[in-house]
Write a structure and sequence with these properties.
Radius of gyration of chain A: 19 Å
Order of helices and strands of chain A: HHHHEEHHHHHHH
Number of helices of chain A: 11
Structural class of chain A: mainly alpha
Strand content of chain A: under 5%
Oligomer: heterodimer
Largest sheet of chain A: 2 strands, antiparallel
Low-confidence stretches of chain A: none
Order of helices and strands of chain B: HHHHHHEEEHHHHEHHHH
Low-confidence stretches of chain B: none
Shape of chain B: globular
Distance between the termini of chain B: 43 Å
Number of helices of chain B: 14
Chain lengths: ~290, ~350
């Protein structure tokens, strides 16, 4: 049972990590958490669903369209909602993203109703057994997506000019500006990319957890736990945090009590913020004066 | 001095407050439907919760997303004490408030060492934890809900919202006076200084950490108090009465009304309680409007509704100075003479 729990925990955990990645990305660039990230991703997933089921578009065509929609969504979101309050304090930005969270959640309910739908997956959902452990292809797919995305992001941020520019801006906005890196570009890019990542994660999650307006809510909170666990400024941290969270959550559910399983992520949030607020993998933070 | 001149010396805000109190005292007796009185009760309760948040967010600029959690703690504690130990409401509700304050104190100690964003997330985590716990604990009867014994004064039962409102008014007024005194007291002013500039506050020797804990404890106490009253109003509580959206609602009230000003908490509570109830028919649209309103308010009036007069004054002053600057520049270049 232990091995089974670990394996499925890794699969779910990679999804937490993927969503967590989008949160960390936005945080790195603009030092703010997007509380509406989950809901935005949920809406793009519904768009994909409408494309595939109602309009009969092929899955592999619908996905890029959805991701493009997510990109536009993120950019528009940044321009309309974030830019006006970009210089205000954290509180204001939090409230703004919370307002969007509430509005989008209900908007989705208004457009698509509250039924639960089954979302198509590119692989079958029948599990096969490997060495006595049931493995679902959908979970493997999720793990695969997470790994590929992380690799791409790694190369992007370490090797490309744009990626390095963004990291520079996050590290020291003023100096970056002096070097010609536009903070507007960084902000727009981060929100856009974050939105795409979130959408990709939701598309991967939907076949596993079914599609309804509430699908992202608990996922989002657990992704936040994963990001905090790994360190909100560390992208690999978010992934590893997600994996750790997924596995430990499963183990707690299996060995202690399944009722407690859901609350575990929140306990993790509180514990990590108490013990090591900067997370497991980030450098000790400096507080700017 | 004639009486009229003496009366006219009072500020507009005093008159408004007086009008509000008179309205609140009379209306329950003459109101046509019980529903409107229920709304009035709700406004009073939400006002108390928003007041607590106002003390915290307004002074220290820190956010608590857990106000609904403290409301739940107050509500459940008060109800359980009333039904199991047969405590009367005027004992069980304060007990609930104190317990909520205690929990708030415990939570504050570790989490207030963190910065604004981290505190928000920590309170979010706590909020969800309390949500799950109230669902799971046998004593709270989870989603099936808990019956709340009605409020009794001796053998006199406070039947209905039209009587409960007076209790709420009294409590709200006391809470308001307490909050006002607190904000004006040394600690209150220290906290406001904190919100403005934490480093400067530290530099003059204010124990930032300790004062923040005081603010958070007060905030959670008010949350617990409103919870106890809420339980009596509803007569029946379930974990879903105290979910994340409720917490967000309180934040919206403080921000839309005006952070840091007690009148702001009141205006916010009134508007954001009455508006959703008025929009009740269009279920989904109600929340959408709510969210959009939150965002728009911050764009249009970042200081909140009650600061709009000041905002207008500032804007007018800016216009005037800009105009004067233009005239000056024109004079410099010899286009206009000194008219």
């Amino acid at each position: 049972m232990f091995a089974q729990l670990v394996v499925s925990g890794l699969a779910i955990g990679s999804l937490y990590g993927l969503v967590g990645l989008s949160l960390v990305l936005v945080y790195i660039a603009v030092e703010n958490v997007n509380f509406a990230q989950g809901e935005m991703a949920m809406i793009t997933t519904f768009i994909a669903f409408t494309l595939i089921k109602t309009l009969g578009v092929n899955y592999w065509l619908a996905v890029p369209i959805t991701l493009l929609a997510a990109l536009i969504f993120g950019v528009v979101f940044e321009t309309v909602v974030i830019k006006p309050v970009a210089n205000a304090d954290h509180t204001t930005v939090i409230i703004v993203t919370l307002g969007v969270y509430v509005a989008m959640h209900s908007l989705a309910g208004l457009i698509w109703g509250h039924e639960v739908y089954k979302f198509p997956a590119p692989v079958t959902s029948e599990a096969f057994t490997v060495a006595g452990i049931a493995v679902s292809p959908v979970h493997l797919f999720a793990l695969g997506v997470a790994m590929i995305v992380s690799l791409i992001l790694y190369f992007f941020f370490k090797r490309t000019d744009v990626g390095i520019a963004i990291r520079a801006s996050a590290s020291d906005k003023v100096s970056a500006r002096l070097m010609g890196i536009s903070p507007r570009f960084v902000s727009v890019f981060a929100w856009g990319l974050g939105s795409v990542l979130g959408s990709l994660a939701a598309l991967t999650i939907a076949p596993i957890s079914f599609l309804d307006t509430n699908m992202m809510m608990s996922f989002f909170l657990k992704a936040m736990a994963a990001a905090i666990l790994g360190g909100i400024t560390s992208m690999p941290g978010a992934l590893i945090g997600g994996l750790i969270l997924g596995v430990t959550e499963n183990l707690v559910g299996g060995y202690i009590s399944s009722g407690f399983k859901d609350s575990f992520a929140f306990v993790v949030i509180i514990l990590i913020l108490l013990i090591k607020p900067t997370g497991l993998f980030s450098a000790p933070g400096q507080r700017s004066v | 001095m004639s009486i009229l001149t003496k009366l006219l010396r009072f500020k507009a805000s005093t008159w408004i407050s007086l009008a509000v109190v008179v309205f609140a005292l009379i209306y329950p007796q003459v109101a046509a439907t019980n529903y409107t009185v229920y709304i009035l009760n709700l406004v009073g309760i939400y006002f108390i919760a928003a007041l607590g948040l106002n003390v915290l967010a307004g002074t220290t600029k820190q956010m608590s997303m857990a106000q609904a959690a403290f409301m739940a703690i107050g509500a459940y504690t008060s109800t359980i004490l009333a039904s199991k130990l047969l405590l009367p409401f005027w004992l069980s509700i304060p007990a609930g408030m104190l317990f909520a304050a205690f929990i708030g104190f415990l939570i504050a100690i570790p989490t207030l060492k963190l910065g604004g964003m981290h505190l928000a997330i920590a309170t979010l985590g706590f909020m969800m934890l309390v949500s799950k716990i109230t669902d799971a604990l046998p004593i709270t009867k989870g989603p099936t809900g808990l019956y709340v014994p009605s409020a009794k004064l001796g053998s006199f039962v406070l039947r209905g919202d039209r009587m409960l409102i007076y209790v709420i008014i009294i409590v709200a007024v006391i809470a308001l006076i307490a909050a006002n005194n607190f904000m004006k007291s040394r600690t209150g002013r220290v906290l406001t200084a904190l919100g403005d500039n934490e480093v400067a506050a530290k530099a003059v020797g204010i124990n930032v950490y300790k004062e923040k804990i005081v603010a958070f404890t007060i905030c959670s106490a008010y949350g617990g108090l409103s919870g106890g009253l809420f339980a009596i109003l509803l007569g029946y509580i379930a974990p879903d009465n105290f979910n994340l959206f409720v917490s967000i609602q309180f934040l919206a009230m403080v921000v839309v009304g005006g952070m840091g000003k007690i009148s702001g908490a009141f205006v916010g509570a009134v508007i954001l309680t009455i508006l959703p109830e008025g929009l009740r028919g269009m279920k989904e649209l109600k929340d959408i409007i709510y969210g959009v309103l939150m965002v728009l308010m911050l764009f249009v009036a970042p200081g909140g509704l009650v600061r709009i007069p000041m905002q207008i004054k500032n804007w007018q002053a800016k216009r005037k100075s800009r105009k004067a600057g233009d005239v000056q520049a024109a004079m410099q270049y010899g286009k206009v003479d000194k008219s």
